[in-house]
Design goal:
The complex is a heterodimer of chains A (543) and B (245). Chain A is built from 18 helices and 2 strands. With 543 residues, chain A is mainly α. Chain A has 2 domains: 58 residues; 442 residues, Cytochrome C Oxidase, Chain A. Chain A has a two-stranded antiparallel ribbon. The longest helix of chain A has 36 residues. The radius of gyration of chain A is 23 Å and the shape is globular. Chain B is mainly α. Chain B is built from 11 helices and no strands. The chains are: A mainly alpha (543), B mainly alpha (245). Chains A and B meet through helix 3, helix 4, helix 6, helix 7 and strand 2 of A and helix 2, helix 3, helix 4 and helix 6 of B.
Chain lengths: 543, 245
Amino acid sequence: MIATLSVVERQVGLLLSVLLALVGLVMAASAGYGVMAVHGSMALVLGIALIFAFSGSVSDPEPPADRIYHYYDAPIRFGIVMTLIWAVIGMAVGVWVAALLYWPEATPAAPWTTFGRLRPVHTTGIIFGFAGNALIATSFYVVQRSSRARLADAVSPWFIMIGYNLFSVWAVTGYLMGSTQSKEYAEASWYADILLVVVWVTYFVLYMRTLARRNEPHIYVANWYYMAFILVVAMLHIVNNIALPVSFSSDQSFPVWGGVQDAMVQWWYGHNAVAFFLTAGFLGMLYYFLPVRSGRPIWSYRISIVAFWGIVFFYIWVGSHHLHYTALPYWVQTLGMTFSVMLLVPSWASAGNAIATLNGAWHKVRDDATLRFMFVAAVFYGLSTFEGSFLAIRPVNSLSHYTDWTVGHVHSGTLGWVAMIIFGAIYTLVPNLYDRSQMAWPRAIDWHFWLAVSGTLIYVVSLWNAGITQGLMWRTYGSNGSLAYSFLQSVEAMAPYYLLRTIGGALFLAGAVLCAFNCLATIRAAPRGVEAIDRPLSPQPAE
Amino acid sequence: MIPIQKLHYNLEKVSMGLVAAIIFAASIGGIVEIAPLFTIKETVEVPEDLRPLAPLELAGRQIYIREGCYACHSQMIRSLSDEIDRYGPYSLAAESAYDHPMLWGSKRTGPDLARVGRKYSDAWHVKHLINPRHVVPTSIMPVYPWLMEELDTSLLSAQVSTLHRLGVPYDTSQLENVKTDVLAQSQPDSDEAEGIAKRYGKDVAVRAFDGNPEKLTEMDAVVAYLQSLGTRTKEPYKILSEKPK
């Protein structure tokens, strides 16, 4: 990492490390005890470790002068490794919390092992840890390749990677210690939120500066999706997390939004985290890696344009479909439902465009498990966006809301679409970044593929059954005009489905672990010194 | 090329143009749906009898948040007949008007709690929280025996003042007596117990919630909070009885 930096960049790195250590010290000292003190100490230790790493090499020789003509891949390698680590952590905790619903006393009775504290560790670990690292790492790769330009700066990619992962670690360790804002998918405490804003602004600036260096007149469509991801996530994160700290020496805060307005802001955020974090960014990934892997150009460039603006414009309206029949005004619910249904058009246009791109390359889909991951991702994207529009329709939602159907729907998107496209990208990237012609264990990719597909199907089908059963039991009246089932009976009826979903999740986790070991073996087999080499800029136009 | 294609063809070459267009397209929906919720008066009609949470209840709410109870329990009864029959009158926007954040929830692994107040005895709640399977053999809820530990009230005054700054209508007397009130609500025989009724209304439960008035525990706070749910205003019951005309 440090060998590829110039002397000035190393000095900047040293300065930032000192700053991090100081911030950590101030946080730990002012809080004195509790979650914020622990988080401050973490930053202090990380800062000191980085100071040691930099101070030993500040006066080392300058890197080669032709560095500017090479892609900067070291931060991407770091991001991919973090993606794999978070995948295993996030999915393992997911299987754990799934098991707790079947064996509620399976783990020792300590505060941090309860479902309520572990559940956000799973969601944050997957959304921010696994998906976020994958998005940032691949965006660095895609923006360089499709612009035929080196990242505009060498320090800020590291600032982004390290800062982002510090945010994620602060978030999940905070939940274990009982620190949470309780806003779903935005549970991290106020100072972690501020860190994420700083990281995100740096990310945006780096992305725009790199685009400004491009050697292509046009900005390739994948980059628009990554730009929408960066911009709108910033907007959502800032607005939803505006909060007043109880004191500056405590992790406690209250959001400025309350009641019905808070509910609307929260689900405007919540659903667009799905839209711009888990969809737009990953469509960017799809629009780059699918054509590259299949060797086919995007089927219709025009559809990619129309679908892009459709997704950016329609998605932002749909959050209120999480609040049907609640105290949210009826007109807002209706708007949310209407736009959710309209959203099916750009969603299916994107999915169809991806699948049609494979025309002429179906033999590759059959033979290449990596490309099959991407194909299945596009199929599940189509399926879960259809399901999403369907569930947003008011009468359907009256049955599905509050049930496990929603959880099943989310996992058809996250397991079937998000994780599959990430694995497809990882299996394409890892050999490329480590100078290998293929993964160390090519057959393990096939094993992973079938573990992932069967795990997803078992998970999703069992929760469809669970959710519909719950919804029907809650609303069924007996012949005497009173409710037919107690709530507890609906809980008891869930047992077989909760067991099945745990098994499905465990299969998916097994595939991810296999992927992590496969990557580790590939990295270890890399030729010596590969870490120091940057790739020469491609002389060919990217498209 | 038709003009719009030409326009987009050129837009693809200007990164800041794309940025501006994305921000514009992605802002409209949020503005149209969220801004009017602050300006249209009918969105939240706060009834006169709605009271903010007493300090002990607020401490309980913070524990409810800390433990992630909202991940499995909603506090939002929808306007559907089976929900009204199962849980009580549908939830009004006003009922969560003082809630920062709202805890409407999104999943019912366990039942809705919007009107759980006064449905079970304190002793039932204590037993149930220590180990749910002692009272409900097939429950899948986690155990919370550590709630019997002492309640940390060091931040409570600052928490109440922060909520006051955000617009929750705590009056001067309520703000000044946080430390007294948090203890008094679980000590019905103490001299300060009357202050609770004076400041928060006579409907507020003043009891030794965990059975022991000597020690203020997290259990006191959580049970006080659960017993307050759905009891802070009578408005929802009035609306429902007006319905069948």
